[in-house]
Design goal:
With about 425 residues, the chain is of the alpha/beta class. The protein is built from 19 helices and 9 strands. Helix 10 links the parallel strand 2 and strand 3. The structure holds D-arabinaric acid and zinc ion.
């Protein structure tokens, strides 16, 4: 079946690419550059084939994505308890019926499933689910993965790797992974935010740590990070933080951040990623779909960037209300890199607003998007949507520049898109691609 795909890189060089564009040529040229530029997907929950079943793909995973589960309970009378009692296929069937058959899939996440099916030339109508299942059932992961990344125009996938997750740990302790397009990230939620529940795991593995992270604990936790740095070769370290996050304060999070994690980042030359603003489990009955959002106090970011001027911070904030402050702080601290429009923000209307604001305040010195994909094929629709939303925003910026008297060329557009899609991230992490 024919798959649509990102255009192969357009090699216009020399005079045609340096040609001065007329106002009406700008939008099509921007669209073309975006369509032919590959992106580094700098935060996902995808895994390389070495991780086996941990890596999710296929129609039943797409339909049971937690973004869709949250929407399902608004359009079905089924209780969460009844839903969790079903098998994966039955859950997917229930979601298909409620969100795709009985209603039009016009929300961002449901529309994404349609875009994926259509990218593979599969039926998108109510009766097509059987055929769709047959198609995915017939794929084997390695060629399918190659094809998906090619369609999505993604050259590199950055994973989220939790060293305290037993299933993942087993893979890293055996042989790790060496897929050239996948890169590791040392995710530290269980250490930075779940120390009381997880310090014993470190102790069992031979690190001299205690419940209050006192004495040798912070140095020993650094030794733990050094061992995992060696094992994973991560591009950065990362944590997601609640809206109530403060820095500095008396918490174990502050202590471990300043005495363990940030010194390790400095030692290994890695940025630290902070994803701030999640309110975990406001409705635990929904499990992974039960998290919400809260406005954070951005002075924590200010304090971190100022106090640790030798560290670099990648920061994404979940609340719409925090976006402007984040962009302003990035103007004050060049060790701060805003990234992505995360989770509840990843809707065209909000992405537009945030991205325009960032361009106006920061030029091209930010990372506009990451996919946050949990299921492989999601990269297709998430990056298709990003390119579609970015095109008029970038074109408008060049139109204004053109009207103000500047010369706009394809060469310049390409340079800017390269910086946004990969250059800023490559520079910050030292990732060498291509
Ligand atoms: O967007 C999501 O899928 C969330 O569930 C979170 O995983 C978030 O992206 C995170 O990395 O914590
Ligand atoms: Zn995520």
């Amino acid at each position: 079946m024919a798959a649509i795909s990102v255009k192969s890189p357009n090699r216009k060089t020399g005079s045609s690419s340096a040609r001065r564009l007329k106002a009406e040529q700008i939008l099509p040229e921007v669209q073309d550059v975006l369509a032919s530029s590959e992106v580094v997907d700098m935060h996902t929950h995808l895994f390389s084939p070495a991780f086996g079943k941990i890596g999710l793909w296929g129609i039943d995973e797409l339909l049971t994505y937690h973004y869709l589960e949250a929407e399902f309970f608004r359009s079905s009378d089924m209780t969460p308890e009844e839903y969790w009692n079903l098998s994966k296929t039955q859950r997917a069937d229930a979601i298909w019926k409620a969100l795709f058959v009985e209603n039009s899939p016009i929300s961002e996440s449901t529309r994404g499933v349609i875009a994926v099916l259509s990218a593979f030339g599969l039926p998108t109508d109510a009766s097509g689910l059987k055929e769709v299942r047959r198609f995915f059932g017939a794929q084997s992961i390695r060629p399918h993965l190659r094809r998906v990344l090619q369609i999505a125009g993604v050259s590199d996938v950055v994973m989220t790797n939790d060293p305290l997750d037993p299933d993942e740990r087993a893979v890293w302790m055996r042989e790790g992974q060496d897929h050239s397009q996948f890169h590791a990230v040392l995710r530290l939620d269980r250490i930075l935010f779940g120390w009381p529940q997880h310090w014993q795991q470190l102790a069992t593995e031979g690190y001299s740590v205690n419940e209050s992270a006192s004495g040798k604990s912070t140095a020993e936790a650094r030794r733990f990070l050094a061992d995992w740095h060696k094992r994973m070769r991560p591009l950065y370290m990362a944590v997601s933080l609640p809206d109530s996050f403060q820095f500095p304060d008396e918490s174990l999070t502050s202590k471990l951040l300043s005495e363990t994690v940030l010194p390790s980042c400095r030692e290994f030359g890695l940025p630290m990623s902070l994803m701030i603003g999640v309110r975990r489990q406001v409705n635990p009955r929904l499990r992974l779909a039960g998290d919400a959002v809260g406005k954070a106090d951005m002075r924590a970011v200010e304090n971190l960037c100022r106090t640790f001027s030798d560290n670099r911070f990648l920061v994404s904030v979940l609340s719409r209300e925090n976006q402007h402050e984040l962009a302003v702080y990035a103007r004050k601290f060049n060790n701060l890199m805003p990234f992505g429009c995360w989770w509840f923000l990843n809707n065209p209307s909000i992405v537009q607003e945030i991205t325009r604001e960032r361009i106006e305040l920061l030029g091209t010195s930010f990372i506009p998007q990451h996919s946050d994909a949990r299921v492989l094929e999601q990269v297709i629709y998430k990056w298709q949507n990003t390119r579609r939303t970015l095109a008029p925003i970038l074109a408008d910026a060049y139109q204004l520049l053109h009207a103000d008297g500047a010369e706009i060329t394809r060469q310049k557009i390409q340079r800017d898109v390269n910086r946004l899609f990969r250059g800023n991230f490559e520079k910050w992490t030292g990732l060498r691609t291509g």
